[in-house]
Amino acid sequence: MATKRSYNDACGTAHALDLVGERWALLVVRELLLGPKRYGQLRKDLPGISTNVLAQRLAELEASGIVRRHRLPAPAAAEAYELTDWGLELEPVVRSLGRWAVRSPAHDRTAHLSATSFVLSLRTNFDPGLAQGAHGRYELHLGDEVFRVLIADGTLHAERGYQQQPEAVITARPSALAGVVYGGRQLADAVAAGDVRVDGDTTSVARLTAVLSLPAPAAAGPDTKR
């Protein structure tokens, strides 16, 4: 393995970039924020990464104490990767960085979107001010992954797993569901096109979209207030 580069700078920000600033490193962290994944799952969810680069990033993150190997319980009984407790502390960093970057005029909303990315976006863009009095129980089937979402008492919980007595079970590609939740596409149009399937109360999906808000786009030109 090639020697990892360093900024040789005592600033904490510089050292953070030493740890997770290499290409793909922070995206590997993102994909592990909702729980362990096998190597093959990471390759599928990061389609642009090469096998060699993924192996190198995992080795570097493991050596830094951010990632560790994890043995999945039976019947899988396979080796996977998970974040350490310290690594999990990166979630607010990843979410804040994502919310900052989504304001970019150059943000490509049609690019690949993993299931983990979409579910993290729900945590990131949830607006408690819009959720007063709102309640909802949802189960999301995004590819081969299942997530439960609960809106209650001004909070939103989104994590892996099945939901007990969901009001709606939503099946879609992450990018298709993002188009409805964030892109202004009408749910009825997405359902009619076969891009989204809703089993249960279709009208309850509106409560999910109503508690999410994206930040305003950044100004595209120079700051004229200076």
Automatic annotation (TrEMBL):
Top-level taxon of origin: Bacteria
PANTHER family (alphabetical): TRANSCRIPTIONAL REGULATOR, MARR FAMILY (PTHR33204), TRANSCRIPTIONAL REGULATORY PROTEIN (PTHR33204:SF18)
Name of the molecule in the record: Winged helix-turn-helix transcriptional regulator
InterPro entries: Alkyl_sulf_C (IPR029229), HTH_HxlR (IPR002577), SCP2_sterol-bd_dom_sf (IPR036527), WH-like_DNA-bd_sf (IPR036388), WH_DNA-bd_sf (IPR036390)
PROSITE patterns to which the protein is assigned, alphabetical: HTH_HXLR (PS51118)
Domain HTH hxlR-type: 11-109
Native source organism of the sequence: Streptomyces albidochromogenes
UniProt keyword annotations, A-Z: DNA-binding, Transcription, Transcription regulation
